[in-house]
Design brief:
The longest helix is centred in the N-terminal third of the chain and has 30 residues. It contains one helix and two strands; from the N terminus they run H-E-E. It is elongated. Strand 1 and strand 2 form a beta hairpin. By secondary structure, it is an alpha+beta fold. It has a domain of 36 residues. Keywords: Membrane, Transmembrane, Transmembrane helix.
């Protein structure tokens, strides 16, 4: 029974090293690929859908209006 402790500790060390290497590897991958995760706004696209404009603190953005039937009429 006492001989199993060194083997258990050796296996736990291997698992810990694997977890650390995987964590560092994923961090390096995300660092190197971060440019592809950035959103770059595009210009206006012609479409046939209804639009809605949102304004907040003098800044406005326009979006496609989906689920028009869910908007409450006459509120405000």
């Amino acid at each position: 029974m006492m001989n199993s402790w060194p083997r258990l500790l050796q296996n736990m060390n291997r698992i810990l090293i694997l977890v650390i290497v995987t964590y560092v590897g994923l961090g390096v991958m995300l660092y190197l690929m971060q440019r592809s995760f950035i959103y770059f706004p595009t210009g206006a696209v012609e479409h046939r859908f209804d639009e809605v404009t949102f304004e907040n603190d003098g800044v406005s953005t326009t979006s496609i209006l989906l689920n028009k039937h869910l908007i409450k009429q006459g509120s405000g």
